[in-house]
Amino acid sequence: ADKDVKHVSINGCIVQHHGAQGIVLQGTIAGVENSTVFDVGCTGLHVHGGEMRTLTPGKVYAHGNSLSYVARYKRTYQPAIHWGGAFNTYSHNHMSHSPHNCMLGGGNSVGSDEGGVACVIEHNTFDHCAFETSDVGAFYTCGQQATAFVNPGNELRHNIFRNIRNTEGTGVQDVNVQAVYLDDQMSSWHVWNNTFVNCSVGTFIGGGRLNVFNDNRYEGCDMAHHFDNRGMNWE
Question: How would you class 92 by CB atoms within 10 Å of its CB: exposed for 0-12, middle for 13-18, buried for 19 or more?
Fold first, then answer.
């Protein structure tokens, strides 16, 4: 784990058959690239930097990594990539075979100072995510704990989502699996030019304001897009 680092690049590393998290990096102008995390018990990559409250840029990055078979021990809320902070980039990563989220962060998933502001998530591949859970997104961010309206300016663009379906069953709860899930009034996202293939639900807006979804493509999805007005009624 590298915390509060500056000008550090973790490049070309392999982490496998490990019981906890793969790589943890938190700092400024630092990142993880061209690395492989495979068969780990918890989160694959944890890459955070910067602060929401002060708009301090982190300028951290996760680029060109391969992440698969994460959350082998702890099955939920242990994504392939956990992201957070301000002015960070997560690009060209391949994430697959996560029973819950493949990418999780921003909003109430990170510290109240850290948040998720003006981050770019682009050119990533999400494959076989969220196959064992429900009320879940392959890419998930949540606006609970008064975070919905203070995490603006993020973009999700040029990504591919494939095979985002529950294949294991959920017991007493109905299956509810999304490729992209903005939950509980999460606001001010721009989601565009993404491709969704064989997904239960492509994109999901759970209330909120100033979310823009455009030029996305849906193929073989049970539902292309869902949106509701929570915040005006039951929430």
Answer: middle
Cβ contact 138:166 at 8 Å: no
Q: What is the spatial distance between Cα 67 and Cα 61, in angstroms, rounded to a whole number?
A: 15
Residue 87 has pLDDT above 70, yes or no: yes
What digits encode the pLDDT tens for the residues 160-204? 999 999 998 777 778 899 999 999 999 999 999 999 999 999 999
Element (H, E) at 129: strand 125-129
pLDDT in tens, 104-122: 999 999 877 788 999 999 9
CA atoms of 196 and 221, how far apart (whole Å): 7
Strand partners, 138: none
DSSP state of 8: -
Predicted TM-score of the model (pTM): 0.96
The rounded distance, in Å, linking the Cα atoms of 97 and 126 is 9
Q: Is 107 helix (H, G, I), strand (E, B) or coil?
A: helix
* Whole-number Å distance between alpha carbons of 77 and 82: 9
Which helix or strand (DSSP H or E) is residue 45 part of?
Answer: strand 45-51
Supply the mean pLDDT for the chain.
Answer: 95
Give CA–CA dist 168/186, Å, rounded. 28
Identify whether the C-beta of residue 23 lies closer than 8 Å to the C-beta of residue 16: no
